[in-house]
Task: inverse folding
């Protein structure tokens, strides 16, 4: 299959599987913010962030290694070896984690430790199952599993929070039950257990898996640190209420990140397969790169321009201040996503060491800036620190990726996007501080003036796609 078609197809399958539940979850923000206090929401976000930090370390990122190595497997014997060796490595990591958690409980009795352990195990199991499904080419099953996990999480959240009024415990319980249950269900449904065979274990192959995955751990952990350090410092310096406001403001960039995530899951596969194809992989990389930059820039501008119309509809209570930080966090997410594109090229070439070094540098920068700025300027400091860190990792990786592909810098296109960004941000904050309708109207016009022409090849196909969908529905 042509890699462009494969990329579009897989992205579409993943988007169909995940978009509906993500949209419903986002639209439930009024429920969450009306039932949960800012302190409760901040606590849930705090616990989830700690779990996200631990998952890559505990799982030794065997899901990433397994997926990449399964792409190169040519028969069932090789697949059994890959699955068996990766599962063995993850079991070792989980065992060490269990001992460490037990020791921490015996010595310090930390609050919410049990929830952290449960979240880590459930997510590691879900990621490992997903790696097998994607590595076997079962992208629809992978999308279905994530759809079920998300749908069950939403339903249980509504029941536990709105009906039973369990608050923090309800949200955490919903996540653990949904993710762990979906993973176990698909392990059985797809009969993945058949590929775990002690006789297929190969120590040298297991070492190769670990050697591939270990450099990715600092990368994953560093990204989590950049997403976590601001919240930890906010929690300890400004309190749980401020952490809750910041967590809600991050919900909107997370929508953008979710849209990109559908693409990224497919991109990691297509970028690797392009190396083994007869075509020009650099030309393929550049075509995707140009389209991605324009599209993600448009997402930042349009979401920013529409934020004053959307935020008040979806967010209740004492969270209104968070609207001020959304545009900065959207821009930070843009740089994070584009740097992920470069990461796909690195993993395709199995050059995972660069990914770790780039994000470690940026995580350290984020840490220093958060310590300096949050006590001084509060949530503005957290937002600026996150933007500076993601911009740094983006530029660093862009310089390093030239070792594998000469990507088009497109200085003219970047200059036009920067001017549009400056105009939209200026008009957005003019509206926030003055409430002038003209500022909001001009902000929306400026966003569309860039987004539509820049993405015209996509925009002009929308009517044809809509007609096709309507014809199928008749």
Result:
């Amino acid at each position: 299959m042509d890699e462009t078609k494969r990329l579009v197809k897989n992205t579409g399958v993943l988007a169909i599987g995940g978009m509906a539940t993500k949209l419903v979850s986002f639209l439930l923000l009024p429920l969450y913010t009306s039932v949960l206090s800012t302190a409760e929401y901040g606590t849930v976000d705090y616990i989830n962030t700690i779990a996200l930090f631990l998952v890559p370390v505990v799982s030794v990122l065997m899901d990433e290694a397994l997926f990449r190595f399964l792409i190169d497997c040519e028969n069932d014997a090789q697949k059994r070896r890959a699955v068996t060796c990766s599962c063995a490595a993850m079991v070792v990591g989980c065992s060490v984690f269990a001992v460490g958690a037990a020791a921490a409980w015996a010595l310090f009795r930390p609050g919410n430790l049990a929830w952290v352990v449960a979240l880590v195990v459930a997510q590691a199991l879900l990621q490992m199952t997903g790696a097998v499904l994607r590595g076997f080419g079962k992208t629809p099953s992978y999308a279905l599993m994530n759809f079920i996990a998300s749908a069950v999480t939403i339903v249980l959240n509504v029941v536990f929070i709105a009906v039973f009024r369990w608050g923090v415990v309800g949200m955490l319980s919903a996540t653990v039950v949904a993710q762990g249950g979906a993973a176990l269900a698909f392990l059985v449904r797809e009969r993945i257990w058949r590929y775990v065979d002690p006789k297929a274990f190969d120590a040298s192959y297991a070492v190769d898996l670990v050697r591939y995955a270990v450099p990715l751990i600092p990368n994953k952990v560093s990204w989590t640190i950049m997403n976590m350090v601001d919240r930890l410092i906010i929690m300890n310096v400004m309190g749980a209420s401020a952490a809750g406001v910041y967590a809600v403001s991050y919900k909107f960039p997370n929508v953008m990140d979710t849209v990109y995530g559908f693409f990224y899951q497919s991109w990691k596969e297509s970028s690797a397969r392009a190396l083994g194809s007869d075509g020009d992989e650099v030309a393929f990389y550049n075509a995707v790169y140009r389209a991605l930059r324009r599209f993600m820039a448009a997402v930042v501008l349009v979401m920013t321009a529409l934020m004053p119309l959307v935020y008040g509809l979806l967010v209740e209570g004492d969270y209104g201040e968070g609207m001020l930080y959304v545009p900065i966090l959207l821009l930070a997410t843009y740089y994070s996503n584009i740097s992920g594109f470069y990461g796909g090229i690195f993993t395709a070439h199995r050059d995972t060491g660069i990914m770790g070094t780039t994000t470690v540098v940026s995580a350290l920068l984020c840490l220093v800036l958060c310590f300096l700025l949050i006590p001084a300027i509060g949530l503005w400091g957290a937002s600026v620190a996150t933007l500076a860190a993601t911009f740094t990792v983006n530029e660093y990786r862009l310089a390093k990726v030239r070792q594998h592909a000469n990507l088009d810098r497109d200085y003219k296109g970047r200059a036009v996007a920067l001017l549009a960004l400056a105009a939209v941000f200026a008009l957005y904050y003019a509206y926030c501080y003055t409430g002038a309708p003209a500022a909001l109207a001009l902000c929306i016009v400026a966003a569309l003036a860039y987004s539509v022409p820049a993405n015209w090849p996509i925009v002009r196909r929308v009517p044809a796609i809509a007609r096709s969908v309507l014809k199928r529905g008749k």
Notes: The chain has a mean pLDDT of 86. The longest helix spans residues 240-275. Residues 43 and 240 are 7 Å apart (CA to CA). The radius of gyration is 22 Å.
